[in-house]
Amino acid sequence: MDNTKREHFGSHLGVLLAMAGGAIGLGNMWRFPYLVGKNGGAAFILVYLIFVVFLCLPILISEYAIGRRTQKNAFGAFRALSKNKNWSLIGVFAVLAAVCVLSFYCVVGGWSVKYLVESLKFNMPQLDSSYFNGFISSSISPVIYTLIFLGMTGGVLVLGIQNGIERFSKVMMLVLCVLIVLIAVRSVTLPGSSEGIKYLFVPDLNALDGKAVLEALGQSFFSLSIGCGTVLTYGSYVNKNENIIASSLKVAMFDTAFAMIAGVAIIPAVFAIAYMHGATPEIGAGPGLVFITLPSVFNEMPMGGFVAVLFFATLLIAAITSAISLMETFVTYEIEEWKVSRKKAVWIAFAICSVLGIFCSLSQGVLSGVKLFGQNIFDFFDKLSANVLMTGGGLLLVLFVGWSMKKEDYIDELSNGHTNNVPLWLLSTIYYLVKFVAPVTIVVVALANFIL
Ligand code: PHE
User: Fold this and answer.
1) Domain ranges of the chain
2) Which residues have CB under 8 Å from 361's CB, separation 6+?
3) Distance 242 CA to ligand 1 centre (A)
4) For the segment 204-250, what is each residue's pLDDT rounded down to a tens digit?
5) Which residues line ligand 1 (CB under 6 A)?
6) pTM, two decimal places
7) Whose CA is closest to atom 11 on ligand 1?
8) What phi, psi does 340 have (nearest 5°)?
9) Which CATH number is 3-451 given?
């Protein structure tokens, strides 16, 4: 394919919001708040921030740089940059990881569609745990919602980079910010919410153990979407005059800020309502926090029906912009490597993810007996992508940049050919973090994960 004909993002803001849209998702809205609560509040946030700055940010910058330098899909990018063709396997890894993440992500995306529909019907009072469990384990309804979610994702992608991804992300990210701030304000103005704020921000160092550190690392990878080719793919649509380091920093800050605000939107509300009933706040409910605990919170809160609509709309928008980045990674790969049209590529991606998504959805019910390595299909995809493919992809990526790519080429890309005034010490620091610190940290954490 002729690179000059390749579509690009149209503006600096477009790049930023599309990338932030890919990063901000279900990971920020339910996983982060719940992990913070479980692992010692502010202490966990501190560890998380250290990982974001010293490990994930350099990886994010590197993945972005590889995409921008080659202007190719994840597979083509590594093939173009390496003399040894084995390195292009990293690209295969990345594309596979993106498909795997999307396969279970679209199921939760489907749940969000369903809950938005129910909240629009002001049906919150019925949405208790047995409703949720009954819904996700049934065979037809969650499958249909999963397909609707994938259909919406594919619908945006058919429109292309500027008209689809960029335009959608620009509008939706702004809506997203307004909504989450509104919900956060509602949450902290509930009587009794201050306990929740304390829980969230006053560090309890005792709650911070080795496992919490591992969880902070996993969460930072997942939340910033690194190691599965989505950042690389978006990077390949970025113009040569964009400052990679500055925009990566902004994306990381945006993602982290959003996670914090989501925490403020959720946790204090859960505390406030629990205290109203003299009950203990059920903060550690994982996925149930959003789909079981929160509906009961909305039921009790003044203007709760309205807040529920806002919340599930926010959740859906966040999930879709992430799903878009995942599907686009596969779609670009198909367009450039299989030489198919965008429309056809989207259909193929939709078909493959639908089949996998249906299996993941059914594994909550009729197929719950089917085990892969001791886990149901949904959990298997979840673990496989986060713990193996994304972390493995991240490791291979840093090994590639640090040990196969020429340092001058890397620095040249980050500094836009030494024209963007990024100081040399900063460029070298990033390079050495990628070359030494990142691989060692990933291996140590992976081993610890394995042993613990
Ligand atoms: N970062 C997204 C989230 O927080 C998930 C994601 C992972 C998206 C990997 C793309 C790639 O929900």
Assistant:
1) 3-451
2) 107, 110, 136, 142, 143, 146, 378
3) 23
4) 778 777 778 888 888 899 999 999 999 999 999 999 999 999 999 99
5) 22-23, 25-28, 101, 222-223, 225, 228, 230, 322, 325-326
6) 0.93
7) 225
8) -110, 165
9) 1.10.4160.10
